[in-house]
């Protein structure tokens, strides 16, 4: 691998890593907004049905964000494979920078599979919390 192509891969890795971390921050913002909605609904006696629907929408939105984050992680892994950090003997001149969007388009599942992926990411424990507890609190109060 030439130094230039390796530099391109490292720059792509850094950009994707920063993006991956940004998705985590956005996820936390969505959680904070959901907590605010739950507190607002309790404080102002908003109908539980409305609050639960808003929380469910934010929950699914976070699942979508986590899906994007997962895809970014997959791209980072592919770049790391190309850099062959653990196997220097695999380096060769034909390695080119990873084409993130082209790979996403080529590997994008059909609509049904995409929806299932969003829903499955929504049920991961780190995404699930705080939505179910907040929904319970809204129903109880």
Multimeric state of these chains?
single chain
Order of helices and strands: HHHHHH
Please report the total strand number as a whole number: 0
The tally of structural domains comes to 1
Low-confidence stretches: none
Mean pLDDT over all positions? 86
Structural class: mainly alpha
Give the overall silhouette: elongated
| Relative strand content | under 5%
Please describe the biggest sheet, giving its number of strands, its sense, and whether it closes into a barrel.
Answer: none
Rg calc: 20 Å
Helical stretch tally: 6
Termini gap:
62 Å
Helical fraction: over 70%
Outline of the structure:
The protein is mainly α and 141 residues long. It has one domain (3-140). It has 6 helices and no strands.
Features of the shown structure:
141 residues; mainly alpha; 6 helices; 79% helix
Describe this structure as you would to a colleague.
It is a single chain. With 141 residues, this protein is mainly alpha-helical. The chain has one domain. It is 79% helix and 0% strand. It has 6 helices and no strands. The radius of gyration is 20 Å and the shape is elongated.
Structural topology:
Elements: H1 3-43, H2 48-83, H3 100-107, H4 111-122, H5 125-128, H6 131-140
């Amino acid at each position: 691998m030439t130094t230039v192509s390796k530099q391109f891969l490292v720059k792509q890795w850094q950009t994707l890593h920063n993006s991956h971390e940004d998705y985590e921050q956005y996820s936390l913002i969505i959680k904070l907004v959901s907590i605010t909605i739950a507190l607002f609904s309790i404080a102002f006696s908003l109908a539980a049905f409305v609050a639960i629907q808003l929380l469910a929408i934010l929950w699914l939105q976070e699942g979508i964000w986590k899906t994007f984050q997962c895809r970014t992680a997959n791209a980072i892994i592919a770049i790391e494979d190309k850099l062959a950090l653990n196997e220097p003997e695999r380096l060769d001149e034909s390695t080119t920078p990873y084409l993130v969007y082209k790979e996403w388009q080529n590997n994008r599942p059909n609509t049904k599979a995409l929806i299932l992926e969003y829903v499955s990411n929504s049920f991961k424990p780190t995404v699930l919390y705080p939505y179910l507890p907040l929904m319970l609190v809204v129903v109880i109060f």
